[in-house]
Structures are given as structure tokens and as C-alpha cells.
Amino acid sequence: MLINSSIRLNKYISDSGICSRRAADRHIRQGNVFINDSLASVGAQVFVGDVVKINGQPIEPRDVDDLVLIALNKPVGIITSMGKHVRDNIGDYVNHSRRIFPIGRLDKDSQGLIFLTNDGELFNKILRAGNNHQKEYLVTVNKPLTEEFIQGMGAGVPILDTVTQQCLVEQEAPQMFSHHAGAGA
Length: 185
Description:
Helix content: 10-25%
CATH topology of the largest domain: Alpha-Beta Plaits
Number of helices: 5
CATH architecture of the largest domain: 2-Layer Sandwich
Structural class: alpha+beta
CATH class of the largest domain: Alpha Beta
Largest sheet: 4 strands, antiparallel
Low-confidence stretches: none
Order of helices and strands: EHHEEEEEEHEEHEHEEEE
Radius of gyration: 22 Å
């Protein structure tokens, strides 16, 4: 923070890495947050030198040097979960010293690029559907593809109680296709 500048309290808390902005607002509404020993309100501003406490514990925003962004080629068999109770979870696999979380997910039987971070704002910018990021998947199947399959995948696939959106599907090899979804695909 620059001198004489301020930052919204929920962002200050989120930047500390403790929780998301939404969760920070819940803490504030529940009366768990104080600025300079005064009960804080949603929308409050934090200035340089202010002391912010949640449940009596002082917090500070994370320094830029503390940010973590990991690009991982997730192998087959690793589950995209940080749950300690989940066997073969991605958190144990990466074994980072800081609290990080995956941006998105890949199925246990999938291999590919996944990002992990401790930056909640980056996480939200990437995953928020309203940001219309394009996604591309390269899929290998266990039998040769047909033109009907390619057209059917592109037209939308019924899954549970919905049908996926139309998308661009192209055959890349006899048993491999690419799937493009999102912004303008």
C-alpha cells in the first residue's frame, strides 16, 4: 500500500491469504474484525499503519514476494483436491510449504497443465465464468473416432440434467480430438 492510500477491508484480508473477499465480508458482518481496536464494518477502508485483527489475531497483507504461482503437469492418478483426507491429493503431491490451491481441476485419470496459487484474486479472475476465457482440451480415446462422434461432441452432449454448450471439436489423430470452449470458440 502506498502512503496516504487506502484499501477496502475485505481486499486487505483477502490479500493476506486468509480467505476470499466474500468470506472476509462474512467475518466482518459477524463482528470478528477490528481496525485499530474498533469494530469494523463491511466496506471499511484500511490505511497504512492501521492494525487489523480477526478473532483477536493481527493480520498483514501478503508481500508480492510471498505470492506463489506453480505450473504443474499433473500426472494421471493425482486428484485435484487439497483435502488431507483425500488419498493422492494434489496438495500432498506438490508438498509446498505455503497454503496453495489449484485453479480449476483435472480428473484423476487426466494428465495436463494446471496452475496452483495462493492468490485468491488471480484464482477468481481465471475461474469466473463472466471473464469468458477460452479453454482447449486435447483428448485421447480408446478407439478410432468417427465423423458422427466429432459432430455430436461439437453439437453438445447431454450430461446429467443439462446439455453442454456447442463448441469447436476437431479430429487431431485417429484416436485424438481437440475441444475448444469459451470465448468465441
